[in-house]
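User: Hi! I'm working on a homework problem where we have to compare a predicted structure to a textbook description. Could you give me the structure for the chain below?
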Amino acid sequence: MSAALGILCTDIPGQFVGPLGDLADGVDISLPLSLAVAAVLYLALLWLFPEPRAAYGPEGAHWVRTRDDIPVPAITEAPVPAAV
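Assistant: Happy to help. Predicted structure tokens:
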């Protein structure tokens, strides 16, 4: 979604100007706008669909909601060494 909005707002004269490219009077705002929309969308989806509390490690989550109703299995086996 943010990538599509970035393409729509691209303003590179002589190469490509999107339908919303003249939104900032000739300034290409596609990258900052895409990054801002992606960050807001990520935080909104994280708020709507929270991760289990154990996914954030021993210090816990900061500034986001978590779920306690999802069981997280304990890691009881040693990792298998990689073949060389």
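For your comparison, note the following. The chain has one domain: 2-67. Helices lie at 2-8, 30-48. Good luck with the assignment!
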